Amino acid sequence: MRKLTLTISDMKFQYKYGFYYLYTFLSVLYICIVQIMAKDFKDITAQLLVFTDPATIGIFFMGAIVLLEKSQRILPSLIVSPIKFSDYLFGKVMSFAFISVISAIAILFFSPSGIGVVSIITIALGSLFFSVLGMIAALNSRSMNEYLMLSTIFEIIFCLPGVLYIFNIAEKYLFFTPAAVIVQGMRNKPASIFYMIIWNTLLILITYKYMNKKYRKIGGAR
């Protein structure tokens, strides 16, 4: 119940700060870009736009939200309550996944290949992956500058393979990277769901083991 409550709370927070208005505008803009592209480039354009924005939304905005909650003393208050790190993480990543999936569906719907169940599930799992990366960067940052530096490193390591894969560059070497798997999902390859579940499981286990201590430390817990 706490997880659902925190998810709804985070969605209200994102609505208050204009995330839904922003992604409504961006989705319309991206749809227009896809529509004006030549027919042969519509699919690749849609995949690139979805991958570089809604699918990876968490790594861009997680730090801003977590650091804002730190500065407003919201996060320390949550930490000294019965709320666990798993509850806090769940609320954040699921609220971002909702925006990610809705925006991606809207954009891919207007591409020639359209949108399928495999695409939706893979994008949702990809959003969870990058949101968790954003949480790792946020909890290891004391300022926005530190977060931007750390998240940029994560973006280069984890996002660049996806961009290269979209353009069929070194694809056989990048096939199993998380970013390439997300692109495969947008191309409706069912195995992408299985691969993303593995990547998410590994990342969440690592995150929970090491970031739980960071989370508790913010609230002064021992």
TrEMBL record:
The chain crosses the membrane at residues 20-38, 44-68, 89-110, 116-140, 147-170, 190-208. Signal peptide: none annotated. The keyword Transmembrane applies. Keywords: Membrane, Transmembrane, Transmembrane helix. InterPro entries: FLQE3_permease (IPR056926). This is ABC transporter permease. The lineage of its organism: Bacteria, Bacillati, Bacillota, Clostridia, Eubacteriales.
